[in-house]
Amino acid sequence: MERFFQKISLPFSRFAIFLVYFWFGILKVFDESPANPLVSELLGRTMPFMSFETFIICFGIFEMLIGILFLVPKFTKPVMLLLAAHLAMITMPLFLLPEVAWQGFLVPTMEGQYIIKNILIVAAAIFIFAFNGKNSIWQSSTSSQPR
Hints:
Layout: H1 2-29, H2 36-46, H3 52-70, H4 76-90, H5 92-96, H6 98-101, E1 102-104, E2 107-108, H7 110-116, H8 119-130, H9 137-143
Antiparallel strand pairs: 1-2
Helix pairs in contact: 1-3, 1-8, 3-4
């Protein structure tokens, strides 16, 4: 059973990130995302010169691109940079919109919980990055075991 999970963990992690990013991105492109009001408020505070309609479509496409690139192992390094930029943007409400993200000291609102949960995406991305290469610890530890 352990070998099965070792075998699927990397592709499943890639697929999970793809699914979340592509799905949430396409919702933004079609103006169906429940996060759009939060994005609009943050955009108004950080880049008031840009129209929300233009930004949300570009941001949705950016998220979809991140998702797609996670499916292609040779793009792991570049997508990590895009992911870092995206995560920096999406954590901004914790600091720039505290009235939206927090209901008390260390007590997040639903929006705050949604943002904080992204630490799981960070963990999955670190796993993918660490065990993506041909000389990774993951491959050497699983390939040395008898089949």
